[in-house]
Amino acid sequence: GTLALWMLSSQASGTSDRRFFPLFISNDVQLFGATARHLWDVLLSADLVIKDYINGDRATEIWTECFHAAEGEGQPIYEEMLRAKRWQVEQEQKKYTEAFAMRQGAIAKIGLPQVRDARLRALERERADWEQQLLASQSACPELSPLLIISTKIKP
């Protein structure tokens, strides 16, 4: 079969998140998640012997099978990444909304009317900039990258 290690990354407005997952595809193109995790653990602790390299059409075929399988296996991982990002954005939005309201209240109580108006306009510009950044941080760009693809064989 084929063992592959994939990295799923998501970038949005200067922040990034990465998740790694192994994938094992048998010779009859079946996916085995537990086998992938086990083989990955063994691979980390064993001495590896490279017998041969695969190239040409067979390498392209293996890569294509792995990529399509990784897209399917990576989908729930990516959805979890999006849920975590949405939760983080919601928490940040609550925090900043409260902070802006408190600052607006403080500004409205102190200073001459012209100074208060200038400070409120500056605060509103700051809030608009923050909302733009928040909006940009919600649009994620996913990337699925193979880190390692190994064709495995059982010793006779």
A few lines on this structure:
The protein is α+β, with helices and mostly antiparallel strands and 156 residues long. The protein is built from three helices and three strands, in the order ββαααβ. A hairpin with a 2-residue loop joins strand 1 (2-12) and strand 2.
Strand-helix topology:
Elements lengths: L1 E11 L2 E11 L7 H13 L11 H53 L3 H25 L3 E11 L5
What can you see in these coordinates?
By secondary structure, the chain is of the alpha+beta class. It is built from 3 helices and 3 strands, in the order ββαααβ. The chain has a 3-stranded antiparallel beta sheet with strand order 2-1-3. A hairpin with a 2-residue loop joins β1 (about 1-10) and β2 (about 15-25). α2 (about 55-110) runs antiparallel to α3 (about 115-135).
Index terms:
3 helices; alpha+beta; 156 residues; 3 strands; 58% helix
Mean of pLDDT: 87
- What distance separates the N and C termini? 15 Å
Total beta strand runs: 3
The helicity comes to 55-70%
Please provide the ordered H/E string of secondary-structure elements. Answer: EEHHHE
**Poorly predicted tracts of residues:** none
Strand order of the largest sheet: 2-1-3
Instruction: Give a quick account of the main beta sheet: strands, pairing sense, barrel closure.
Output: 3 strands, antiparallel
Strand content is: 15-25%
**Radius of gyration computed on alpha carbons:** 25 Å
Label the overall shape: rod-shaped
Number of helices: 3
Oligomer: single chain
Summing up helix and strand content along with how strands pair, one would put the structural category as: alpha+beta
